[in-house]
Amino acid sequence: MLPLKRLPKRLFFLGFAVALLPLASCANSPLGETLQRSLAADPQLEENPVLFGGTPTPEATPSGVAELPANFPAEIPRYPGAELVEVIQPNGDDPNAEVQTRWQTSDPIEQVRRFYQEAFASGNWNLDQSVEEAIAAARDGLRVTVAPVSNAATLTAATPTEFTLQYAFTSDTAASSEPTNSPRNSASDNSTSDNSASDDADETAAVPQPGDPDFIGPLPPADFGTDANSNATARPTSQRFSDLDQAPEELRQYVTDLAELGVFGDQASNEFKPNQEITRREYARWLVAANNLIYGDRPASRIRLGNGSSQPAFQDAPRNDPDFAAIQGLAEAGLIPSPLSGDSTTVTFRPDAPLTRENLILWKMPIDTRQTLPNASLEAVQQTWGFQDTARIDPKALRAVLADFQNGELSNIRRAFGYTTLFQPKKTVTRAEATAVLWYFGIQGEGLSAKDALQTEQRTEQRTEQQTERPPQQQPTSQQSNQQPNQPSGSQSR
Fold it and tell me: CB of 390 within 8 A of CB of 422?
């Protein structure tokens, strides 16, 4: 009985096998191909297993697609020929969070390590020797760590070397502390129970004073709480340089006048190095100093210095930076692009990067015109200046370049670079060229030069000396006035 019960099932499988024989014989026929396609797996399901709970395979970033972050500091050395592979941005909105970049090169890791050790040492970075298997360095509120990837030591000669470069801004740590010898701390140590005296000391301490590490050239105006009779009214001492013969002849007088005015402060060296590139921090410092000294008798025309209570406008210009007062002051006055002026992409100042020609004019012209710059286009700049490389000028600088043309012979570009048909906006600026721009502030008929400021100062000193040397006129006493009429008669009698 059992075989009879299973017989129909066996006949079923036998019939199914017989039915497949014709299909197998016509596998290459249109009917067979149609059947194969209908029974094949859905290719979309194979490529997207996550739709059914599968684990997706992570996609590797194609080589050469990664781009450096917008805030990547220019002062960080970059290994020659290294290719950026990956950028890992931190989560959250913390501007001081660490950013990691991964690089690839064909050179051995020891050569990479040697390059960064030498680059950091020559760039005045502070090396952290406590970090093992990596190179850690810090400078100006920026910390950088260069390390090989975990398997870099086992790579063969044919395998590219990979290393990571991590950087983070530490301005919050630097900003939390103040120098112990600052006027603010001195005022707090010497504070008394008199609340008004304490308030006056705090107001005065908000501006760096002569002798303070944060003091940058120009002196704070009297209306910032400084006593007009104090020694804060004196300007920095003038200085003479021994290498001005190396500067272009047309630019030497500009350096001399600004040095005599005290724009460069008290430098330890008597060399000016006129043909050396000027950094962005140096130009910011000189720009504020020159303007405030030339307009020394006009407090309303001076640029207010940033104080220690201000939130830093840039991540790489913390409160303890030696040029914070000048950089912060320019940003707070809206004279340079920054988040304060609505430029949310400019979060770093890059103080040690070389200054370019277009930024030289971009920062200066708002101070010259003292008003909104005119609208500009490539065609307008091309028609006025006739520069062959107008298209290379950053759109932010176009308005400044056009406004400078309207200043005629007092144009900054003409004064610094002479006659030229190439602006070369990305070219770096020398220290001598920067002095040519800073020698004069204003527009035609309404400006002042360093020479004007020196002449005004000389006249003031002469009047002061004359008043000091002239003996005070004494009023005659009543007895002397009664005797005076008798003196002439007495002399005649003799």
Answer: no
Six token digits for residue 431? 């220290």
Alpha helices in 61-176 (DSSP H): 109-122, 171-175
Cβ–Cβ under 8 Å, residues 256 and 244: yes
Question: Is 99 in contact with 374 (CB distance < 8 Å)?
Answer: no
**pLDDT 10s digits, 368-389:** 999 888 899 999 999 999 999 9
Q: If DSSP codes are grouped into helix, strand and coil, which group holds residue 194? A: coil
Q: For position 317, what pLDDT does the model report?
A: 93
The enclosing H or E element of 135 equals: strand 135-139
Q: Both tokens of residue 22?
A: 């014709």
Q: Given the structure tokens 């360095």, which residue do they identify?
A: 137
Q: Which range has the worst mean pLDDT, 51-55, 81-85, 152-156, 291-295?
A: 51-55
How many residues in total does the chain contain?
494
pTM recorded for the entire structure: 0.52
Cβ(290)–Cβ(282) under 8 Å? no
Q: How far apart are CA 347 and CA 334, in angstroms?
A: 14
Give the Cα separation of 262 and 370 in Å (integer). Answer: 24
For 69-86, the DSSP string reads -TT--TTS---TT-EEEE
